[in-house]
Amino acid sequence: MPAPAALSHRSVLAIAVPIMLSNVSEPLIGVVNTAIIGRLPDPFYIGAIAVGSLIFSFIFWGFGFLRLSTGGLSAQAVGAGDTGELVAVLIRALMIAAAAGLLVIVLSPLIRAIAFPLMGGSPEVRSHGEAYFNLRIWSAPFVFANYCVIGWFIGQAKAKLAFLVQIFLNLVNMALSAAFVLGLGMTSDGVGLAALLAEILSALLALALAARLLRQFSAHFDWARIFDSARIWRTMAMNGDVMVRSLCVVFAFAWFTARGARAGDLIIAANAVLMNFFEVAAFLIDGFAYASEALVGQAAGARDLSRYRAAVWLTSLWAVVTGALLSLVIWLAGPPLIDMMTVSPEVRETARHYLGWAALTPFLGAVCFQFDGIFTGALATRDMRNMMIVSVAVYLAAWALLERPFGNHGLWAALEIFLITRGLTFWSRMPAIERRLFQTA
Fold first, then answer.
1. Exposure of 269 in the CB half-sphere (CA atoms within 13 A)
2. pTM above 0.85?
């Protein structure tokens, strides 16, 4: 295994830029699928795909911990120069992914029976949504395997391979959707089949690339190490910590949406428009969190304190500068962007009224994303879990104090306090994490 290169701004961008590009490509799938299915004469097809896609977003996003934990563990193995453990990390992760994917398939009748009534919609939307669901659900093991391999690549700072897999997935998905719906006359089942085949093929590509990389390392399978109970339990504990962290994030933003909905159609529409700005910014800033995960993890594995501090500083500098620039863009370009997203004069005016809050979120979010990457690379997942729980508690307290007297301004303020609290609580744990990793005084 080659030694990691010296850290520089270029090494940060070499990881971050491919991830940013692949992240930005993800929303194109929904846009293209909507455009394709929208060529059919009945509007319920679009609703069916929208409902089905949202259900899968929750299912698959909930297992995103597989990528995070695999990335942190592989980065530390690279830093330690331990090829055997690098192999074992991947195999263990794939075993967990296979088990989780099969469990989702087994539970799919229950998931379908609960999710579709909750989502609502006409009988036609539900019928075609279930047709989409019944096909795509079989992709769960392959989706989770993809998470593991992509995390494994990122942990080794091989972001170009992760980018290749993600772009391949997106392009194949879009091409097959067009072929099945426009060429073969299928409907929502065609979109579901396209997603299933694209996710299978991308997982096979990812595994083939991983196998080639292992051959370059002359790696071998040490089954005793792979099935070492202590390491397996450590991996499971990390996954559990990151899953709790992810559920806290989902809860925080779901709460924000739900409280906005209670304030009326105008407020929820305006908030939805503004949150799109944050989501796009998050896709971009997340590239630096991936970079911090890889570079911090490698430094921690090598027990190289100066490299660790350089990794934290360089990735954080780029993330914060990028977040600040995106905040400025939202503030300056927000009004015309709002006009592009809605034709309603009332929604436009309301969204402009709260634009300042939305403009703050990329800058504050950049700090949060960075700490997620740093803590994952340092394998400080228990701290990540605990600080996230504290942040959610502070968020709910701020909401309880601010929403009643200040309305939607109070709701946005509570969200900003959530982001600030995440940053401060994570920052407070940094000295302890450094001491634990490097046994400094």
1. 15
2. no
